[in-house]
Write a structure and sequence with these properties.
By secondary structure, the protein is of the alpha+beta class. The protein folds into 2 domains: 37 residues, no CATH class; 75 residues. It contains 3 helices and 4 strands, in the order E-E-H-H-H-E-E. The protein has a two-stranded antiparallel ribbon. Strands 3-4 form a two-stranded antiparallel sheet.
Amino acid sequence: MAVHQGARVYTRRQQAVFTTVRSEGSILPVDLLQRVAQGDPNLNGLTPEAYNLLKTEKINEAINHSWNRLLSAWAAFKAAQEKLPEKDLGTTLTRERWLLPLFHELGYGRPYPPCQFQGRSRPLHERCHRGNTQQPA
């Protein structure tokens, strides 16, 4: 049972205090948060290798670097968005200044560009190849 006092969460079975996380229900239990905070070696996903980092890289530094890069990309995107003409929906701007940097930081790289198949433009998520005779799904 949790007792809430301000921004802190106290539990009767654990003594840990999380001042920035509020855990409700069982999706993200407090004991799991404690294991993450303590760097439990039996919990998968807490090593630099799990994130394709070098062993010498610190996860929190990699996260901080990505966060700062995305904050900068977001600020540049919003500044450019304010300068768009009223009739411009900003599709290209959104893709180039926000979505592509976001996809890059998430490790997706650059998505395939739209392509033509049987005279129809296909979305980014459908790959088109020369000589392909089957309709994409």
